[in-house]
Design goal:
Length: 82
């Protein structure tokens, strides 16, 4: 029971700190551009977009290896089903 004398003020202090941090994030504009943040993950640093057609399909001799970053890994028949 004596531990409640310590834990209740500590819980109130931590809750107040979390509430203050939330209001600070609102005031500083952290939630202003929610749509842009969700779309930014799909934009490559080079300007390419995910799902864009690549100019060269993977060669047949490389069929057994894992595709490199930026290469298409779907065959033509798989692309037709998407």
């Amino acid at each position: 029971m004596s531990s409640l004398i310590f834990l209740v003020p500590l819980a109130l202090l931590l809750g107040g700190a979390a509430l203050a941090a939330f209001f600070w994030s609102l005031k500083s504009g952290q939630y202003d551009d929610l749509q842009g943040a969700s779309e930014r993950i799909f934009v490559d640093q080079d300007g390419d977009r995910v799902g864009a057609r690549h100019s060269q399909p993977p060669m047949a001799k490389d069929a057994g290896r894992a595709p490199k970053v930026g290469e298409c890994s779907l065959s033509e028949t798989e692309e037709q089903h998407i």
